[in-house]
Design goal:
globular; about 280 residues; mainly beta; Jelly Rolls; seven-stranded mixed β-sheet
């Protein structure tokens, strides 16, 4: 488990490209029979990528969490972006096709991740936040999640937001999670941009080709910087930072948030004329 520590806007303005990537960029999330876990002290979110091929993978406790098992004091969200897979939670199996999601509540002791076909392995993208209560484990099929259409083709930001972990879909303590897919011809996400003081956010960019990138824009509105992000790479976004991106083609991204509340519209819009 890799630990990332918080930073302030005053510190951020002095970072060069290398330092920005070291602090906020997450690469190599999905490698064969491996799990990549990053613990960020921004609201203590955990981001993990698990790609079981020939072997099953587990998530457990340890010194970093100070717990006997992973969900002793946490909740978890998972979206499968690969081939068919199965997550076993305390002996109960949950089959996840591509695009399916799963919420696992606090107190579940055993977590096991497996692929159905090793020639087309599952890719389980996991986020986790501290939890104060236990809620039931729920399998969320993509079609049963909440779908919102936003943006316009004229503004190059036409997109569909699919909300998996959201109060209108199921009950969680603080973790929210969903997937946004841009329409062909659109390449801007979260624009006009915003911040949200009461929670942080992580983006996982996906559905990009080998020669495609997203220029992820972050920082305070008057001190913006960018990170070049490639397929299946993530960016940590502090509560004080905008989080927007423009790609060389249409793409998708999974967003996850945790913090003080779960109100999707709790944000501070940024006047586009104030951006620098």
């Amino acid at each position: 488990m890799e630990i990332r520590y918080p930073s302030s806007p005053a510190d951020f303005r002095t970072y060069d490209t290398k330092r920005i990537r070291e602090e906020y960029h997450i690469q190599s999330l999905f490698t064969q029979d491996n799990k990549r876990i990053v613990y960020s002290h921004f609201d203590r979110i955990i981001v993990a990528g698990l790609m079981p091929v020939y072997n099953s993978l587990t998530l457990g406790g340890g010194d970093e969490l100070g717990s006997e098992y992973f969900l002793e004091r946490r909740e978890l969200g998972c979206i499968n972006i690969g081939g068919a897979g199965v997550v076993t939670a305390d002996g109960q199996k949950y089959p996840l096709e591509n695009g399916d999601g799963l919420y696992v509540g606090r107190g579940v002791r055993e977590l096991l991740f497996e692929s159905v076909d090793n020639s087309n392995p599952a890719k389980f993208y996991v986020t986790s936040s501290p939890a104060h209560a236990s809620y039931p484990t729920v399998l969320i099929k993509e079609k049963s999640a909440r779908h919102l259409e936003l943006g316009t083709a004229e503004n190059c930001n036409k997109r569909v937001i699919t909300q998996y972990l959201h109060p209108s879909v199921l009950k969680t303590c603080q973790l929210s999670m969903g997937l946004t897919r841009l329409s062909p011809g659109s390449n801007w996400n979260t624009m006009p941009c915003h911040t949200h003081k009461r929670r942080m956010e992580v983006y996982l960019y996906m559905e990009l080709g080998p020669d495609d990138v997203v220029f992820h824009i972050m920082g305070t509105p008057t001190e913006t910087r960018h990170i070049v992000v490639r397929n299946e790479e993530a960016v940590i976004s502090p509560s004080w930072s905008i989080h927007s991106g423009v790609g060389t083609k249409a793409y998708a991204f999974i967003w996850a948030m945790c913090g003080e509340n779960q109100d999707f519209d709790d944000m501070e819009p940024v006047d586009m004329r104030s951006l620098f």
